[in-house]
Amino acid sequence: IMVSLVVWPPCAASDAAKGPAYTAIEIGRFDVNREDYSSKEAERAGRVPDEMLDTIQRIMIAEFTKAQVSPKVGKPGTAAAEDSTLEIGGKVLDSKAGNKTARYFVGMGAGQQKIEVECVLKDKRTGNVLAREVILDRKVGGIAGGDEEKGMRDFAEKVIVFVQKTLQAGDAGIVSAKTQ
Questions:
Q1: Alpha-carbon torsion 134, 11, 149, 74, what sign?
Q2: Measured between alpha carbons, how far is 82 from 42 in angstroms, rounded to an integer?
Q3: 6: exposed, middle or buried (C-beta count within 10 Å: 0-12, 13-18, 19+)?
Q4: How does the average pLDDT of the chain come out, rounded?
Q5: Residues whose CB falls within 8 Å of the CB of residue 134, separated by 6 or more in sequence, listed in order
Q6: Strand, helix or coil at 22?
Q7: pLDDT tens, 147-173?
């Protein structure tokens, strides 16, 4: 199965009616609740290793930088004090590592990789939540069964679309990386 994503160009807020112009994005590591056994999804989310959380964060920073969503993109604490900063964080709700071999040889959904995260977009200065959305990405196939990092990149692209939709809706403004 092939999934196509359209990534809109970054929006530039030039008037005060659109809200503050953000000049930086800090991407936090997603949280997991290792004590929640209330459902099979919550239990799987609690088993996500720290290494995978670090990899998701690294890939998201790389994809946001490549998409030029903001002039500055990094981990929490990397924005300068004078920057107007957006924070991206959230909680992993479900995760399946998947099985590349099953995707390749069996197909039809066998061995699918899944990541489901409640993403939160906040204004760093005020702490106000600008948007919250559950983002789900599944990898059910691909060349030679697909690649785990490709699945994470696809997830990051969906987060970019979520952020850009929020900014375009007038809830927040951002200074384009291309104009800085």
A1: negative
A2: 39
A3: exposed
A4: 79
A5: 93, 116, 117, 118, 119
A6: strand
A7: 567 778 999 999 999 999 998 886 444
Report the first-to-last Cα separation within the chain, whole angstroms.
38
- The pTM of the full predicted model, rounded to 2 decimals, is 0.75
Q: Which two tokens stand for residue 157?
A: 């692209």
Q: Quote the CA–CA distance of 114 and 137 in Å, as a whole number.
A: 6
Q: How many Cβ atoms are within 10 Å of 177's Cβ, its own excluded?
A: 18
Distance between CA atoms of residues 72 and 97, nearest Å: 31
Cα of 165 vs its chain's centroid, Å: 13
Sign for the CA dihedral angle at 45, 47, 50, 54 comes to: negative
For the segment 49-71, what is each residue's pLDDT rounded down to a tens digit?
Answer: 999 999 999 999 999 999 999 99
DSSP 50-110: HHHHHHHHHHHHHHHHHTT-SSEEESTT-S-TTS-EEEEEEEEEEEE---HHHHHHT-TTT
Question: CA 121 to CA 107: how far, in whole Å?
Answer: 35
**Pair of tokens at residue 20:** 């503050």
* Cα(99)–Cα(94) distance, integer angstroms: 16
